[in-house]
């Protein structure tokens, strides 16, 4: 675990609203190793964006508040810093790109100037040098005629090109970590593929880690080394991409997979949605967050929060589910290595 | 950009022609005429006067004569001020109104942007509450009240200092202009403050501000380079009509401070049905308004790149 560049432990974030306090993130822990891609998946409102935005210190505070946890970037705490302290890593060690490239760039500044700005602020470069470097960066993200394009404004770019420009901007100071907050959600499918391709290529050449926030499992399968599945402000399962897809150890992960379209989906084999809706995070449940929607829910799930447990000694596959308890009943679709293998000895 | 400017100017000319025609028709529809006054005039004298001013001709004829004279830049002579040319009236008094008006707009714009930005920074805290209270006052209290209050405080200040440091009324030096222009700009300043405030609060929540934070820029840099410029755009849009409104609508303030501006002639002319002065001042003001709106639109194009190419 020494090669982790980012370690997040027990992060909690709340928002004070007129309706009460929303507990958006409830004790999230994960780590990112050098050069790997960690995907954080989950449905809308599960807290995945809030998690990474609070790491960057860009959630509005107030109403937002980080109520607990530690986040260490290369061993240095990055939570609760002043903006001056935070600016030593923002844009330098961590770059970030956002969901909607159309609105994420300043409409009244040229693309080149916006990229150059990062370099001028962090690297102390002169205007001319910074702009030249911005052109190189645009070139690196495969924008043709970069020198001409750098002098243009965001409204003259298409969505996919804006996302490339955003990537160029986030890479300006060679960060060791790129946070991509749903980078392809606002783009159409062919452009999505190009952007993902570009990201993996740059990851290799720049040797950086990526945190990829998404709700698209196809994107996860393509990009991720490891996956964290979030639900109702908690990570319910995490592991390598193969473990998540082929040895799913949480009913929510199973539900997500069943709801994923595949080539076999036909009129006979329809998608299976997860019924119901996520719990009210004004009053989060004391037990498992997925209890109300879980087809395998047991009595103990309602009141007691399952712990995050390691499934096998050799891997880093974790799940937060009572079905992983040695005494839990067997569920055929679920990966349950810890379950006692003898068929319920006390029943016979 | 050049084609855009040209097109706007052409549309402006049409607008001014329309204003002139509408004013001409409206003016002649009003009962009475400029030759009616207290003194009894014999039919003979009246016929001579009508002949002198061309009132004996038919309406359409008068219109054609007026239009052809206007195209040559000649608005004729006043009915009520003996043999004084309307062009001279405008030339003598418009610069005074314009100076007062532009100074007022300058104060209003600077004040509106600064106060608006401040209220947005201190949103829902004491400075915001105080400024927004004053803004409501500025919008709802009519300018002659402020004019009188301004004059009264000038008197008090001069009494306190024992000498007439700032003149209470009249025209000539910068001291004469200061308080009247502040008073004149107050309503607009209040309006712009409100506009700027809501615009600032909107921009704060834009995604590109989040991007700027994630880039690691300092709050001051974000404020000036990313927030302010985008927030000023809607304020600029209303500035054009506001400039014209202030410059042409200052006659109450001009009256209170005894400033020899054009506003007084404009109002008097309507009361006395001084045909040539009405037409002259209205068309001139109309052209000025149209020109200011176009000018602001062109400036807008420089601030907002999205407007330039369209």
- What series of H and E elements makes up the topology of chain B? HHHHHHHHHHHHH
How many beta strands in the DSSP annotation of chain A?
A: 12
Shape of chain B: flat
User: What's the main sheet of chain A like?
Assistant: 8 strands, mixed
Number of helical regions of chain A = 11
Oligomer: heterodimer
Distance between the termini of chain A: 44 Å
Derived from helix and strand composition plus strand pairing, the structural class of chain B reads mainly alpha
- Determine the mean pLDDT of chain B: 85
Mean pLDDT of chain A comes to: 85
CATH A-level architecture of the domain at 92-270 in chain B: Orthogonal Bundle
Q: Which two chains have the most extensive interface, and how many residues on each? A: A-B, 34 and 23 residues
Largest sheet of chain B: none
Query: What proportion strand of chain B?
Result: under 5%
Proportion of residues in β-strands of chain A: 15-25%
Query: How do the SSEs of chain A run, as a string of H and E?
Result: EEEHEEHEHHHHEHEHEEHHHEE
Content-based structural category of chain A: alpha/beta
Q: Shape of chain A from CA axes?
A: globular
Written description of the protein model:
The complex is a heterodimer of chains A (348) and B (310). Chain A is α/β, with parallel strands linked by helices and 348 residues long. Chain A has helices at 48-56, 83-86, 111-123, 127-140, 146-149, 159-170, 189-206, 217-223, 241-246, 251-258, 299-303; strands spanning 4-17, 20-33, 37-41, 64-73, 76-77, 94-97, 177-181, 209-214, 226-231, 234-240, 309-310, 318-319. Helix content of chain A is 29%, strand content 22%. Residues 342-348 of chain A have low confidence and may be disordered. In chain A, helix 3 (111-123) packs across helix 4 (127-140), helix 3 (111-123) packs parallel to helix 6 and helix 4 (127-140) packs across helix 6. The longest helix of chain A is centred in the middle third of the chain and has 18 residues, at 189-206. Chain A has eleven helices and twelve strands. With 310 residues, chain B is mostly helical. Chain B has a domain at 92-270: Orthogonal Bundle (MetI-like fold), CATH 1.10.3720.10. In chain B, helix 4 runs antiparallel to helix 9. The relative contact order of chain B is 0.15. The mean pLDDT of chain B is 85. The chains are: A alpha/beta (348), B mainly alpha (310).
């Amino acid at each position: 675990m020494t090669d982790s560049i980012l370690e997040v432990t027990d992060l909690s974030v709340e928002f004070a609203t007129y309706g009460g306090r929303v507990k958006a993130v409830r004790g999230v822990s994960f780590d990112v190793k050098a050069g790997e891609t960690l995907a954080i998946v989950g449905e809308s409102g599960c807290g995945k964006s809030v998690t990474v935005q609070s790491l960057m210190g860009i959630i509005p505070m107030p109403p937002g508040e980080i109520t607990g946890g530690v986040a260490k970037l290369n061993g240095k705490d990055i939570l609760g810093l002043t903006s001056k302290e935070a600016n030593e890593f923002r844009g330098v060690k961590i770059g970030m790109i956002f969901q909607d490239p159309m609105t994420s760039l300043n409409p009244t500044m040229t693309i080149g100037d916006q990229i150059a700005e990062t370099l001028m602020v962090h690297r102390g470069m002169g205007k001319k040098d910074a702009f030249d470097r911005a052109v190189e960066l645009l070139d690196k993200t495969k924008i043709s005629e970069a020198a001409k394009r750098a002098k243009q404004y965001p409204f003259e770019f298409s969505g996919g090109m804006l996302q490339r420009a955003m990537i160029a901007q986030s890479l300006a100071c060679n960060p060791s970590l790129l946070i991509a907050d749903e980078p392809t959600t606002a783009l159409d499918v062919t452009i999505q593929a190009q952007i993902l391709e570009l990201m993996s290529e740059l990851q290799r050449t720049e040797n950086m880690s990526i945190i990829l926030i998404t709700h698209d499992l196809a994107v996860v399968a393509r990009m991720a080394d490891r996956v964290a599945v979030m639900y109702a402000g908690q990570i319910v399962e995490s592991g390598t991409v193969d473990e998540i897809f082929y040895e799913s150890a949480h009913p929510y992960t199973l539900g997500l997979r069943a709801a994923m379209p595949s080539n076999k989906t036909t009129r006979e084999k329809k998608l299976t949605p997860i019924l119901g809706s996520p719990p009210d995070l004004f009053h989060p449940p004391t037990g498992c967050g997925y209890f109300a929607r879980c087809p395998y829910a047991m009595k103990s799930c309602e009141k007691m929060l399952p712990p995050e447990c390691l499934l096998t000694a050799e891997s880093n596959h974790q799940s937060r589910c009572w079905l992983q308890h040695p005494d839990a009943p067997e569920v055929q679709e679920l990966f349950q290595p810890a379950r006692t293998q003898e068929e319920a000895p006390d029943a016979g | 950009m050049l084609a855009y400017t040209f097109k706007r100017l052409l549309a402006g000319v049409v607008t001014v022609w329309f204003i002139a025609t509408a004013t001409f028709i409206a003016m002649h529809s009003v009962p009475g005429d400029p030759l009616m006054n207290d003194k009894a005039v014999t039919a003979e004298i009246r016929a001579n006067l009508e002949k002198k001013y061309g009132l004996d001709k038919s309406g359409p004829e008068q219109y054609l004569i007026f239009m052809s004279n206007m195209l040559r830049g000649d608005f004729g002579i006043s009915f009520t001020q003996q043999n004084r040319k309307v062009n001279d009236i405008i030339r003598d008094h418009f610069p005074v109104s314009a100076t007062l008006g532009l100074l007022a707009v300058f104060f209003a714009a600077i004040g509106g942007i600064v106060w608006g930005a401040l209220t947005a920074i201190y949103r829902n805290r004491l400075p915001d509450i105080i400024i927004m209270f004053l803004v409501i006052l500025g919008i709802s209290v009519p300018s002659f009240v402020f004019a009188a209050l301004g004059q009264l405080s000038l008197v008090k200040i001069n009494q306190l200092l024992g000498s007439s440091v700032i003149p209470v009324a009249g025209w000539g030096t910068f001291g004469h202009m200061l308080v009247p222009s502040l008073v004149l700009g107050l309503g607009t300043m209040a309006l712009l403050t409100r506009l700027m405030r809501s615009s600032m609060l909107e921009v704060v929540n834009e995604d590109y501000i989040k991007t700027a934070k994630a880039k690691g820029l300092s709050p001051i840099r974000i404020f000036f380079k990313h927030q302010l410029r985008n927030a000023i755009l809607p304020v600029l849009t209303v500035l054009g009509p506001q400039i014209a409104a202030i410059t042409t609508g200052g006659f109450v303030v001009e009256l209170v401070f005894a400033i020899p501006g054009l506003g007084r002639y404009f109002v008097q002319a309507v009361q006395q049905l001084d045909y040539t002065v009405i037409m002259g001042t209205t068309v001139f003001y109309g052209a000025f308004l149209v020109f200011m709106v176009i000018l602001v639109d062109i400036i807008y194009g420089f601030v907002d790149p999205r407007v330039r190419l369209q």
